[in-house]
Design a protein that fits this description.
Layout: E1 3-8, E2 18-19, E3 22-23, H1 29-38, E4 41-46, H2 51-63, E5 67-71, H3 79-83, H4 87-100, E6 106-115, H5 124-141, E7 145-150, H6 155-163, E8 170-172, H7 179-187, E9 191-194, H8 202-208, E10 216-218, E11 259-260, E12 270-271, H9 280-291, H10 295-310
Parallel strand pairs: 1-4, 4-5, 5-6, 6-7, 7-8, 8-9, 9-10, 11-12
Antiparallel strand pairs: 2-3
């Protein structure tokens, strides 16, 4: 099984053992990547949330052959563009410079879009103004878009529709929208990124079931968006088969690694509440059951979509 995680926030300090500025355990990035490989993850897109994180994502991607980067500014971070020396033009020139110097590792423009759930970070006006600048980057580079949309009341769809001629492809990642939103995105020729947050409620599951296999991509959005026992999707996961609570292994022998609290960290375990790329297998398991197909077929379809959109023009070992 080959899987590409299109959204992994691996620049987050928690993947180096640091939580809220405190070093709790040793840097375990290598073990995280090992667990991902064991789960069938052959590639990951490390998300760039702003100029600094984009540079970090690129650096990390050069250190590991399976990692690639996105470059952009998350809507909730766009307020920093207003304060950047030289203004927006200088900020986006910096992003362009990062892209041009690393075309072998940068596979998408983003994360970019709109987020009206967290306007205390950045106003609608600021978000809309700087979302538009990302279309200049995609036009100039030919790179696809890695998109974010939360509670935008139609503004996101309107802006995409107005600018659809300016970019080739794009994925709306971490999709949690309604059936109507899904159909709007599909009509615009966009792909849909599904993770644990996409599968929380019964309503989410009903919409996720409607995502066409030729428009599906998979992600974790780690360290966020794990599938929790309280989520509607948890009932679709393989169930414990013995009193010890060992996860039932699927056909290729993979089973969910154990986890411990960060204060009791050990190298062979995940950290509780710190999602990581290997858990993408749970997303595969749930989506395969929703679509009534094998996990292998589900993973293959998403893998093909992702390679065609993001990896057709970069060297990789998939």
């Amino acid at each position: 099984m080959k899987i590409i995680d299109i959204g992994a926030n691996l620049t987050d300090p928690v993947f180096r053992g640091s939580y809220r500025g405190k070093q709790v355990h040793e840097d375990d990035m290598g073990r995280i990547l090992d667990r991902a490989r064991a789960a069938g993850v052959v590639g990951m897109m490390v998300t760039g949330g702003n100029a600094n994180e984009s540079a970090q994502a690129i650096k990390l991607s050069h250190e590991h052959a399976s990692l690639f980067a996105t470059v952009g500014c998350h809507p909730t971070r766009t307020s920093e563009i207003e304060k950047y020396p030289g203004g927006a033009s200088a900020y986006f020139a910096k992003l362009r410079q990062l892209i041009d110097a690393n075309r072998d590792k940068v596979v998408a423009i983003g994360e970019c879009g709109l987020d009206y759930d967290r306007l205390h970070f950045s106003s609608k006006e600021v978000q809309n103004r700087h979302f538009g600048r990302h279309f200049e980057l995609t036009e100039a580079t030919g790179l696809p878009l890695f998109l974010h949309n939360r509670n935008t009341g139609g503004d996101f769809v309107r802006i995409i529709r107005e600018n659809r001629h300016r970019f080739t492809d794009g994925v709306v990642h971490s999709f949690t929208g309604s059936e109507d939103e899904l159909r709007s995105f599909l009509e615009l020729g966009l792909y849909i990124g599904i993770n644990g947050c996409s599968l929380k409620t019964e309503d989410n599951l009903a919409v996720a079931r409607l995502v066409p296999l030729d428009r599906l991509m998979l992600e974790t959005d780690c360290p966020y968006c794990e599938i929790r026992p309280t989520h509607a999707s948890s009932k679709l996961l393989p169930q414990p088969h013995d009193a010890a609570g060992t996860a039932e292994a699927d056909g290729d022998g993979w089973c969910m690694p154990d986890s411990k609290r960060k204060e009791k960290w050990c190298g062979d375990c995940m950290v509780k509440s710190r999602n990581e790329p290997c858990t993408i297998r749970q997303v595969v398991q749930v989506m395969a059951r929703l679509h009534g197909i094998s996990e292998q077929e589900l993973a293959d379809r998403a893998f093909t979509n992702t390679c065609e959109v993001f990896f057709s023009s970069v060297k990789h070992d998939f």
